[in-house]
Specification:
- Keywords: Signal.
- The chain has 187 residues and is of the alpha+beta class.
- It contains 2 helices and 9 strands; from the N terminus they run αββββββαβββ.
- The protein has helices spanning 2-21, 108-119; strands at residues 28-39, 45-54, 58-67, 76-84, 93-94, 99-103, 139-146, 160-169, 174-184.
- β8 and β9 form a beta hairpin.
- The chain is globular, with a radius of gyration of 21 Å.
């Protein structure tokens, strides 16, 4: 009886020690392969992004977005994610973890946790006070070797080729797409 209590206490202590020291870590690595942009009115918005390599291991997104229109409650945003386990472009399938189409100015949480978490130190995108993304300033936004190292991403992703489409609609229909190779991180 006493032995059972001691074993039980030690097991509980071991369990709490192990669980207390566990932290969630990203179990995958990524490599940007390609970036592209589209705009139905380049006088109002012109995306020009590319993947830039510096040396053997440093890869990031560089380029510009020339934003020359005002957003309002008709400006919508959605993030669509496709994945191809084999890497074949013809085998892309849409994934369920997306950001559904919604009013862009109400997306402050996503802007802070995803976009600005990664882009804060590599771009001149605006920082906002309050709960909405208004007024969005017109201007030339410059990206210099932006990575996806700091955002709020899932800890586990399946290996394969991913396509991320950041799509906007409203006065101007435009998007930027990134092709990214995901591999399981060897721990």
């Amino acid at each position: 009886m006493i032995l059972d209590k001691c074993v039980g206490k030690n097991l509980l202590l071991l369990l709490f020690t192990v669980l207390g020291n566990c932290e969630s870590k990203r179990r995958w690595t990524y490599e940007f392969l390609y970036a592209e942009g589209f705009s139905d009115n380049e006088a109002k918005l012109k995306p020009d992004l590319r993947i830039q390599r510096v040396g053997r291991y440093q890869v990031g997104v560089s380029g510009t977005i020339d934003w020359q229109y005002d957003i309002d409650r008709t400006t919508m945003f959605e993030l669509i994610i496709f994945q191809s386990p084999s890497g074949n472009l013809k085998e892309f399938r849409k994934l369920p973890f997306t950001i559904p189409k919604q009013i862009f100015i109400n997306m402050r949480k996503y802007y802070d946790e995803i976009a600005m978490a990664d882009a804060r130190n590599c771009t001149n995108l605006p920082n906002f006070e309050g709960n909405v993304l208004l007024p969005w300033p017109r201007g030339l936004y410059v990206f210099d070797m932006c990575t996806a190292d700091n955002g709020n991403y899932p800890d586990i992703l399946a290996e394969g080729l991913y396509k991320f489409i950041f799509a906007f609609s409203g006065e101007v229909v435009w998007n930027v797409s990134f092709y990214v190779n995901i591999k399981t991180k060897i721990l």
